[in-house]
Write a structure and sequence with these properties.
The protein has three helices and twelve strands, in the order H-H-H-E-E-E-E-E-E-E-E-E-E-E-E. The protein is mainly β. A hairpin with a 2-residue loop joins strand 6 and strand 7.
């Protein structure tokens, strides 16, 4: 990959003391090396000879994702990103969703967590999804936690204002021997009116395998209220709630609840070039179980 040698990629040299950015570095390397111009310059053996160019970027992203799950020195927490129901045929999206935590909660003692997500639209309504989840608890190493495979189907296609609806399902393979695998499934809805929009994700999670810890389902509810200020900037509020066991939900403080403001930025881009988007915000812990503050950031590139 271009820029793998030390000092050759300025984006990947970004560092904050005490926080590893291995997942971020891999994300940048994928984005920097996935352009069609660069791919055409490479040897035929590396180009998966006979494979259409529009699929090669996806295959290279999957390869990098697999390597990340195996070799990155990266226990993972929940990721704080509200998914949209839209599916775009032929488009590859690579996303990094990260979080840094402050003020440990009664059940959450995390320092940082990251999620790499790759999506490719196979049809106008269906996309395949690969995700890798990494994290670091306070005083522990930064490790790989899960690899997730699945898809999303757009049930109701939104045109301008109105409602969009999709259904997502993922199988989550645990990379830690004492943790069960999980299956996530549920709807995603987005309603748009003018510059305002509301997006809701309601996911159920069930444990499978030999190390099942709960017999019922877990609920994850994520939502976002957003207003576009201009062509580049948007402002919003996001909320995230988790009930680990719906049969034994416990009190509000035993559940996970956060809420906070988020700013969104769409980078200028030229026709035919990758489209970059970023977001950042702070989520305040509403229940005793979670950290007092969660600083979230998202970076996305679309080809």
């Amino acid at each position: 990959m271009r820029g793998l040698a030390a000092g050759q990629c300025r984006l990947c040299s970004y560092h904050i003391e005490g926080i590893s950015f291995s997942a971020w570095s891999l994300f940048v390397h994928i984005a920097c090396s996935a352009g069609p111009t660069e791919l055409r310059k490479r040897k035929p053996a590396l180009l998966l000879r006979g494979t259409p160019l529009k699929y090669r970027r996806f295959l290279y992203a999957l390869l990098a994702a697999g390597l990340a799950a195996i070799v990155l020195p990266i226990s993972a927490g929940a990721q704080f990103y509200v998914r949209s129901p839209e599916v775009d045929k032929g488009e590859l999206e690579i996303e990094e969703h990260g979080a840094v935590y402050s003020g440990p909660g009664e059940d959450e003692r995390l320092r940082q967590s990251h999620e790499l997500e790759e999506k490719y639209g196979l049809t106008d309504r269906f996309e395949v999804i690969v995700e890798q989840v990494f994290g670091q608890e306070i005083g522990e190493d930064f490790i790989a936690e899960e690899v997730e495979l699945g898809g999303q189907y757009e049930l109701v296609e939104r045109h301008c204002d109105g409602l969009g609806l999709a259904f997502r399902t993922l199988y989550e393979f645990s990379l830690q021997g004492d943790s069960p695998d999980e299956i996530l499934f549920g709807p995603l809805a987005k309603f748009v009116r003018g510059r305002e929009s509301v997006t809701i994700n309601a996911f159920l999670v069930g444990e499978v395998g030999e190390n099942v810890e709960i017999d019922s389902l877990e609920l994850k509810l994520n939502w976002r209220l957003k207003r576009e200020m201009n062509e580049k900037w948007s402002l919003g509020v996001e909320g995230y709630s988790e009930i680990e066991d719906l049969v034994h939900a416990g009190s509000f403080d035993e559940q996970e609840h956060r809420l906070g403001p988020v700013a969104y930025y769409d980078f200028p881009h030229a026709e035919g070039k990758p489209e970059w988007k970023a977001a950042g915000g702070v989520l305040f812990g509403l229940s005793d179980a979670v950290s007092d503050f969660t600083y979230k950031f998202d970076l996305e590139v679309e080809f």
